[in-house]
Amino acid sequence: MAIIYALMSMFFWGLALFLAAIASRKIGNILTLFWMQIFGFAIGSIYLLFSPNLASFNLLPPFIPVLFVVALLQAIGALAYYKGMVKGQVSLVSPLGASYGLITAILSIIFLKEILRLNQLVAILFIIFGMITISLNLKDLIKNKSIQLLTGTKEGIIAMLGWGVSLFLLIFPSKELGWFLPSIFFRFLIILFLLIYILYSKISFLPKTQKLPFKLLVFIGLFDILAFFSYSLGVSQGYGSIVGPVSSASTLVTIFLGLIFLKEKLGVRKIIGVAAIVGGLVLISI
């Protein structure tokens, strides 16, 4: 059953991240993250009112420090990812951010003593190769012997690290508190972080040049919270080293939508890099 939940999170995250790329290009990464979190939390709260998870709140306090870190890393990763989507191509930033499965798998193997099999080792090498291939400007490297990262690469790597570590940490409260409570609580913390930042920075809560894309943000929030619920269900029942990489294959959905609706083009180098990352993500989950 864990693999089914992992596939569900892959699909929902792919949709959410693609729509977030569109919203970020309209109203910026901060407002996109803030409002999609608001709508996602509101949707989740409706379920909370009718769920038995209310009884688990007395078990929450010991996990608040962990969930605080999860929320902080999630916010940093998402803001970097959305910013990268504004600056660079979806087909570049998406596979880099989606490589968080590599981080989650490695941490699960080290700290949870999950055994690293040969196919997982090969998969890690595939992902690293793919990341280097799509991230570096190889022409400048050959011509000028200087390393120059393509636009959006830094943001994609920050997202990968932030999401990878945070989703690993989310395994612990999910196994003890169940699939729902950790996801809804750290989302509440993200909203608090962003609220404090927006007030401190004196940023307007609404875009100045256009209307708030209400429907778009609602769907982003819905798909995102469904992805987290699916992920939490998966890691509460199975191995993080499997659920994490499978869910991160959401880049397939995001890239596919980017090619169709944003008319992005993939050169040979990017095709090879994306194929290596996707192949690694698939291989690591077998």
From TrEMBL:
GO cellular component, alphabetical, reads: membrane
Q: Does the keyword Transmembrane helix apply?
A: yes
UniProt keyword Manganese, yes or no:
no
Residue ranges annotated for the EamA domain, each copy included = 2-135, 157-285
Q: Which UniProt keywords apply?
A: Membrane, Transmembrane, Transmembrane helix
* Membrane-spanning parts: 6-23, 30-50, 62-81, 93-112, 118-136, 156-173, 179-200, 212-233, 239-262
Listed name of the protein: EamA domain-containing protein
Give the taxonomic lineage as stored in the record.
Bacteria, Candidatus Gottesmaniibacteriota
